[in-house]
Design brief:
Elements: H1 2-17, E1 20-28, E2 38-48, H2 57-67, E3 73-85, E4 89-101
Antiparallel strand pairs: 1-3, 2-4, 3-4
Length: 103
């Protein structure tokens, strides 16, 4: 009987360690000819049991990308919104990259 409970406990732990990823959206702007200065930013948050309380984490990724290209112009911006599903939680993530063009 003890080994059955151990098996159940290990199964629950195992299901929480491995997740299934889903790419929800992808967008791309005009890619420049000069692709020397790539900047990348990402932000994430966790949602437990499907209860979403805010989406402010996406703004963090955008602001960080802009900070990396001060006094320049961001072009060729690629954004990805992806989710990784675990047993009781979902990791939502925004990944943004672009090329900083300085005059």
């Amino acid at each position: 009987m003890k080994s059955v409970w151990q098996l159940i406990l290990l199964s629950i732990i195992g299901m929480n360690l491995f997740g299934c990823m889903s790419l929800a959206s992808l967008s791309l702007t005009q890619v420049p000819a000069d692709r020397n200065n790539l900047v990348v930013s990402q932000a994430h948050d966790w949602v437990f049991m499907g209860i979403v309380t805010q989406n402010d984490f996406a703004d963090q990724a955008v602001n960080d990308l802009q900070k990396q290209c001060r006094n320049g112009k961001l072009t060729g911006i690629l954004t990805k919104y992806q989710m990784t599903f675990y047993l009781l939680a979902v990791k939502r993530e925004v990944v943004a990259s672009g090329y900083c063009q300085r005059s």
